[in-house]
Specification:
globular; Rossmann fold; six-stranded parallel β-sheet
């Protein structure tokens, strides 16, 4: 068997096994050393390939796709710095628990550390940010080696999705020549109809003794809070709502919790807590006896203050699988179990709680006051917060909203009120970076739902390269670009008082007119300055085929003053009512 046949059979069995384990999408960054992998993916009848030139953009595109589908997406690149450019998205995937399979082609061993071009140290390149690394054997085509390559592919897919999802990295060395021969008979190997290593996984439940122990700890408590942070399990929504109803507790629902939207009952959902938690006196007045949190830590920094200040309250964090997401540093009990099953078991417990009925009423009153002020319109002024509120009003049923970091996600937290519409909300809140947002949104937009990407001008500028993918694949996406000419979030931080260095180091104005760049990539650009125009253009964009960018230009200082005026009005009314 000659070199080309060995290379072909080895690679074809590997790619076919990825497919048999459920991988349907592979994002390819073009290059020479990855020729066999890239061409074989494209030849496979059950694979969708996405060819993206910029590796950083490619990795974030795969990340967004994996977030939307909740399935592993594979990445293929050549050797050298191409692989290093995947790193930012790998960090994000690690912290946000997104399954990615990174396949880096490499020089064979004899060309490493000898000054050969495009050869860097790729062994464990991503360190502890991957769940599993494997340096693959050089291609062979014996039955034993074809079983070997299938076992590695099968294991890679399983491990990327097992437990807390994450990244796996396989480094594949190839010798030249690199071009496979797809005319070979039985190219994809024996068709067994199933994975090389089928797996069966059960669900985690607390046993009765553990449930009773938990309930007895809560039995004498009168004031509790259920918190739902960023998470993607929409089945959890109904059971959390039912548990809160049974116990008479408020639900603090993060905008990324998937609980603010949908047809479930929302009487006990508090979406305005970030606004009234900004006052220390109000936080003290809402001192809880216990807090039960589902999902990751909420976006709200004011909520973090609330948790830190009430460290003596019993605190529980519910996770599907073992992990540690508790940045407050409080004494916390972790419950590792299926959250929906846990809620059902708590609802059906024979032990009842003794919650003070005035507790929930107090939260509901404060939430109504906050919402009243936040939803009050300022005539003639299209602020960043009102732009977000308009977006939530207009976004279509069963749509997806992908939100950027910094001010965008915080404005969503403040102005995304409960709605009967079914809206999936996505974000890159693992590492909270502004990089790769355009590409992430486009990746999510490839999978059925129309995606609206909400982000600021710095995030947009940082990933302009991502727009090429929208042009290449005619991806339908609406981008709401909030342009305050710089880093608006810093206007709310102490750095704003340092006038000498603020603009250069934190405000960072870029003074760019984005219209030409958007049109260069075949996008439809519109600038709006009124609420009516914004709603009309947003609505029209959802029937537009391709890339549609709607820009709202704002002023950072005016925006900061407007937000603070809202927060102050809420504080004043709540504190005066307490007197």
């Amino acid at each position: 068997m000659n070199h080309t046949e060995v290379l072909t059979r080895y690679t074809a069995n590997f790619v076919d096994e990825l497919s048999k384990n459920g991988v349907t999408d592979v994002v390819i960054s073009p290059g020479s050393r990855s020729t066999a992998l890239a061409m074989t993916v494209i030849e496979h009848p059950d694979m969708n390939e996405w060819v993206i030139i910029d590796e950083r953009s490619a990795a974030f595109f795969a990340l967004g796709m994996a977030k939307q589908t909740k399935r592993a997406v594979a990445l293929v690149c050549t050797s050298g710095t191409a692989a290093a450019n995947y790193f930012p998205a790998i960090v994000e995937a690690h912290y946000s628990r997104v399954p990615l399979i990174v396949l880096t082609a490499d020089r064979p061993h004899e060309l490493r550390d000898v000054g050969a071009p495009q050869a860097i140290e790729q062994i464990k390149l991503y360190g502890d940010y991957v769940k599993w690394f494997q340096e693959m054997a050089l291609p062979e085509a014996s039955p034993k080696m074809l079983n070997y390559v299938r076992s590695k592919a099968s294991r890679a897919v399983f491990l990327s999705q097992e437990g807390n999802a994450g990244v796996v990295h396989l480094n594949l060395p190839f010798r030249e020549p690199l071009i496979p021969d797809f005319s070979l008979p039985d190219l994809w190997g024996e068709d067994t109809g199933q994975s090389y290593s089928p797996t069966f996984q059960g669900t985690k439940k607390l046993h009765e003794q553990q449930l009773n122990s938990l309930m007895k700890k809560l039995q004498s408590k009168q004031k509790g809070v259920i918190v739902c942070g960023p998470q993607m399990d929409k089945l959890l929504t109904e059971t959390i709502v039912q548990l809160a109803s049974k116990w008479g507790l408020p639900i603090l629902a993060d905008p990324l919790s998937q609980i603010r939207s949908g047809e479930h009952d929302k009487d006990q959902i508090m979406e305005g807590y970030d606004a009234f938690f900004r006052n220390e006196e109000i936080r003290k007045a809402l001192e809880p006896d216990f807090i039960i949190r589902f999902g990751a830590m909420p976006v709200s920094k004011a909520y973090l203050f609330y948790v830190k200040e009430h460290k003596h309250a019993l605190q529980f964090i519910v996770e599907h699988h073992a992990g540690y997401r508790e940045p407050a540093g409080n004494t916390t009990e972790f419950i590792y179990a299926d959250p929906s099953l846990l809620c059902n078991d708590l609802i059906n417990s024979s032990i009842s709680l003794n919650i003070d009925p005035s507790w929930l009423q107090k939260w509901q009153t404060m939430n109504r006051v906050a919402k009243n002020h936040l939803l009050t319109k300022d005539e003639g002024l299209l602020t960043e917060g009102e732009a977000v509120r308009c977006l939530v009003e207009v976004i279509p049923e069963n749509g997806s909203l992908y939100v950027g970091n910094s001010m965008a996600v915080r404005d969503l937290d403040t102005f995304f009120m409960t709605t009967p519409k079914d809206i999936t909300v996505l974000a890159n809140r693992g590492a909270n970076g502004i990089d790769g947002m355009v590409s992430s949104g486009l990746g999510a937009a490839t999978k059925g739902k129309h995606v609206t990407l909400l982000l600021g001008d710095l995030s947009f500028f940082h990933d302009l390269n991502g727009l090429l993918t929208a042009k290449q694949y005619s991806i339908n996406i609406t981008i709401l670009l909030i342009n305050n000419n710089g880093g608006g979030i810093f206007s709310f931080l102490p750095q704003v008082d340092n006038k000498k260095h603020f603009e250069a180091l934190f405000g960072t104005p870029i003074d760019i007119e984005f219209q030409q760049a958007i049109e260069m990539y075949g996008g439809n650009y519109t600038s709006v300055s009124t609420e009516t125009d914004l709603k009309d253009i947003l609505y029209s964009s959802y029937s537009y085929k391709g890339l549609s960018v709607i820009e709202v230009k704002t002023d950072r200082t005016t925006n900061m003053e407007w937000h603070r005026k809202k927060w102050q009005a809420i504080e004043d009314e709540l504190l005066n009512s307490e007197e």
